[in-house]
Design brief:
Three copies of one chain form a homotrimer.
Chain A (H helix, E strand, L loop, with lengths): L11 H15 L3 H4 L7 E6 L4 H13 L3 E5 L2 H4 L8 H10 L4 E6 L4 H7 L5 E7 L5 H15 L6 E5 L6 H10 L6 E5 L8 H9 L3 E5 L2 H5 L4 E4 L15 H6 L4 H6 L5 E3 L23 H20 L4
């Protein structure tokens, strides 16, 4: 029984195994896949909602014949309000003989607690509060690998809300295990990347730069990873003006300076008010964010497959 | 990839194909059906709730082996609150390689936008605000066809809230394509059928009459299609009195004057406070509203089948 | 078509059939089970939420190849708010040809009404307000049978909120049909077992005792069945003090006086604030509450199996 709790549990070798499996399953015919794990059972147990994560896991599982049981809003409908601990919940799901529980929690560390209480069921962390979202980091890495054939020697530019964006933090940590990458972090100072991430990069002797100069950073980028400004969660003292929004947008002018081989990623959802990736450039072939979303299903299928085959 | 966006996309020939398929599938053994579309995936993505529509689609899909993933309350749990456009949502579901997304939206035209953004996934409009609900119109038409062997030469009496009842509007439009039908609209003037529908009937040279005289209208009816008064959504200046409720009820007296071969339809739910179809007459064999509901599953199965077989 | 509406519909013989089937299915290989009821359809239709009951039914059904359609919050999303009666809802589900609807309602007697309106679909009561929760009583009884090889001649100690705990009431009624059992009810007088249950025990000439002396009651117990104090639903005039909570806990001292062969049951969820079964003793082998939860899935699988095989 393997759990997936943190992106950091995967070294370059195990990442490679996951990506090979992803590629292999993606190229199988549906009819070949649909009987692959007949009889296995997966539960999505979400204390905080996330349609995208939930349905990509469910589609991935169903594509291999896994039975899927959904609890999309455990906070509201479950025993939680009666004061049950996550350990007790996990023990019950374990004794229902669920093979895998994909769990999203509001509290950092809760999926690890669930894993500790399970002796049969594998727990997959589908996002634990401000903690980790390991499968997002894996699908991001897979998207890069799929385009560049590797995860090293790349110029990677991150932009948007780097302070709070969990995906940027996780992907940076994961890529820090690979050699020869250079990072640029583009944002206003108030939303710059956290000190913990910078320390991590320092430990690995990885070059990075913090800047507000978007165009210069983009001009030699391989990977451009952009995120929402999360204006629905205001930070006291930080005003996100119209000017900032426009300054930190990926628009036609940004695409102009970007190399032809670069790719633009975004974890989605894109904010329709800000258009941080301008809809006007959606058809530029370098925009990969929807392929990236599609990869989410494929990578999650590989993870489910490897857990059920006891290879993870 | 075919979309189902409007009842008006179906001419008499294509309707006939759908009804033949419905009949054919309804007569297959469950065991014959259950492998029919193994490996296909359908998502119900509902921004506005509708248990009946959702579960009839889900049961129909599952009866043919289609994997079903549910998002019953996209408004609350999805990325919507973060300001994602329907086009972005559709692109993601498309890249998850869902074969069909049944979508209910609060905004008219949104399912058409989703369809325009999908190049793999078929979109089925499960109701788009005050716009269309095409599969309801199809199941209504199927119910009539199943009883009378055709959709022409019928006296059709509509009653209840004709102004806002989306089902009456859609069915009227669909039946306007067939010859020799006569329509009677029974309601108080404030809830009468809209001018746009009357214009449509005029264009097709179809006879119709607006009246408050329920019993006279019913006396030579073939099809009686009744609807809720929607008193939970009051119209300023329109008072729905107890007297009006009783006057516009289908009760024992109404059944008395109705021909023996007539059928009574209702899109359900019936309002238990108003009892617009009196529960006292539920066992009259002319009351077909629960068969009509059952037909919903059958017609939806045929539509799913035809889309997945690339016949639609 | 058999319905499961009340624990009292099962006599010792039919209980035995259910337990034999449970045991038999639990020992089948997953691959043998997964085709058992291919093509059958079950709906969970819950007007009041209950994650545990819902997912154990769904997992049980899916393990035998039954298609499962979920309505976890019918109150909010269904036609209910438009004033549909439970009978109309049941007729629609019946005409969708659902084989089984597991229904949880807020109102006592509503599942029986649904059953009366169904001529094809079997209704399983998944809890009807303050009424019954028959499958909980069956899984409780199965757990005891599984440990002691029978349901007679046992010393059974109930504790906690005996006044309102539906599970205690149902299990007591069910066990009253078996000979030679002795009951002890341990609680403060304000939360003691109801007069109706005591009358029932008197009718069957069954010995019982009400007491506040926990340790003495536990000292010769076979089965210890403990429940939450439901402090989230205060009773006017009844104060649940810290002292009461501690006095009525199953803790190390309680385990000390309990026989080695005794078992401790709890319907879950356990209240993490009260810890009525102290987490410190979770690893005592006599604590069977998580096995009991697991049995819920197994017993429900047997019930679904017997209904679909027309043996119930």
């Amino acid at each position: 029984m393997g759990h997936i709790l943190s992106a950091e549990q995967f070294d370059p070798n195990s990442l490679n195994d996951i990506f090979e499996r992803t590629y292999e399953l993606a190229n199988l015919d549906r009819r070949e896949l649909i009987d692959r794990h007949i009889g296995s059972q997966l539960i999505t147990f979400f204390y905080a909602s996330s349609t995208r994560t939930r349905i990509s896991f469910e589609l991935a599982a169903r594509s291999m014949g896994v039975g899927v049981t959904s609890v999309p809003d455990a906070e509201d409908t479950s025993s939680v309000f009666k004061g049950e601990t996550i350990e007790d919940t996990a023990r019950v799901l374990n004794n229902y003989e669920a093979d895998i529980v994909v769990m999203r929690t509001k509290v950092e560390g809760d999926t690890a607690k669930a894993a500790a209480a399970s002796d049969y069921t594998s727990i997959i962390n589908g996002g634990d509060g401000s903690g980790e979202h390991p499968t997002q980091a894996l699908l991001d890495a897979y998207t890069i690998q799929d385009e560049f054939g590797g995860l090293d020697g790349l110029n990677i530019v991150f932009g948007g809300d780097l302070r709070r964006g969990r995906t940027v933090r996780s992907l940076t940590k994961l890529l820090a295990n690979f050699g020869g990458n250079q990072f640029k972090f583009v944002s206003i100072p108030e939303l710059q990347i956290g000190q913990d991430i910078k320390n991590r990069l320092d430990e690995h002797d990885i070059e990075y730069e913090e800047t507000t100069d978007k165009l210069s950073a983009l001009s030699d980028a391989d990977v451009v990873y952009w995120t929402r400004l999360q204006s629905e969660r205001p930070i006291p003292g930080v005003e996100i003006t119209e000017e900032i929004i426009n300054q930190f947008k990926i628009d036609a002018a940004a695409m102009e300076v970007m190399p032809h081989e670069a790719i633009v990623m975004h974890p989605l959802p894109r904010d329709s008010k800000h258009n941080e990736i301008d809809t006007a450039i959606d058809h530029d072939p370098r925009i990969k964010m929807f392929d990236q979303a599609g990869n989410g299903k494929l990578v999650r299928a590989a993870l489910i497959d490897m857990i059920l085959s006891e290879e993870l």
